[in-house]
């Protein structure tokens, strides 16, 4: 009888201690949250529009330079060689200047996009922290950090709903 009591005590203690060490781990896809949430879509569209405006401007500048180049080529036989070479060099300088300006503009847009994205991800992290505390979750892992996981452990869609309900307005400040 003592042996049965001893085995029962050992068994119960093993079961209770193994349960006390288990952790509640879930995962979420931050990229999907960024792309599918209402604010994330607005951010993506805002920067897509900014890039499109820059591309249109670059194409217009390119067209103007090509027109100048054609005009200069048509004047090649009329102009003195020194004058022609000077104008060729002027066009080259203008091309370099525009390339530098457009590159700086693109860097500025990308920098602004990184700042806004980081700010939005900070807000998402606050929501994830609150979600974890509320639901007694020990760890929420980014889905791109795991190889495979049960789909019922994926809380991405729940987080998107919470993000949509909590973050209604998100300002993008122009510099």
Shape: rod-shaped
The percentage helix is: over 70%
Rg (CA only): 30 Å
What is the helix/strand order? HEHHHEH
The CATH topology corresponds to: Protein Binding, DinI Protein, Chain A
Structural class: mainly alpha
Q: Count of helices? A: 5
Give the amount of beta strand, in percent: under 5%
CATH architecture: 2-Layer Sandwich
Unreliable stretches covering 5 or more consecutive residues: none
Number of beta strands: 2
Q: Estimate the mean pLDDT confidence.
A: 84
Overall description:
- The protein is mainly alpha-helical.
- The protein has one domain: 2-Layer Sandwich (Protein Binding, DinI Protein, Chain A), CATH 3.30.910.
- It is 73% helix and 5% strand.
- It has a two-stranded parallel sheet.
- Helix 4 crosses helix 5.
- The termini are far apart.
- The mean pLDDT is 84.
Task: Lay out the secondary structure.
Layout: H1 2-20, E1 25-28, H2 30-36, H3 38-74, H4 81-134, E2 139-142, H5 156-166
Parallel strand pairs: 1-2
Helix pairs in contact: 2-3, 2-5, 3-4, 4-5
Summarize this entry quickly.
The chain has 175 residues and is mainly α.
């Amino acid at each position: 009888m003592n042996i049965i009591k001893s085995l029962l005590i050992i068994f119960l203690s093993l079961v209770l201690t193994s349960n006390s060490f288990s952790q509640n781990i879930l995962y979420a896809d931050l990229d999907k949250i960024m792309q599918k949430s209402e604010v994330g879509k607005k951010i993506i569209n805002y920067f897509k529009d900014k890039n499109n405006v820059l591309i249109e401007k670059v194409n217009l500048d390119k067209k103007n330079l090509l027109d100048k180049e054609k005009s200069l080529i048509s004047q090649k036989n009329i102009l003195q060689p020194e004058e022609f070479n000077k104008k060729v060099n002027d066009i080259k300088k203008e091309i370099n200047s525009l390339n530098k300006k457009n590159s700086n503009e693109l860097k500025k847009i990308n920098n602004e996009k990184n700042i806004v994205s980081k700010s939005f991800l900070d807000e998402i992290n606050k929501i994830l922290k609150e979600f974890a505390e509320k639901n007694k979750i020990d760890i929420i892992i980014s889905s791109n950090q795991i190889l495979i996981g049960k789909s019922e452990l994926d809380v991405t869609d729940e987080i998107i709903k919470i993000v949509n309900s909590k973050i209604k307005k998100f300002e993008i400040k122009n510099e």
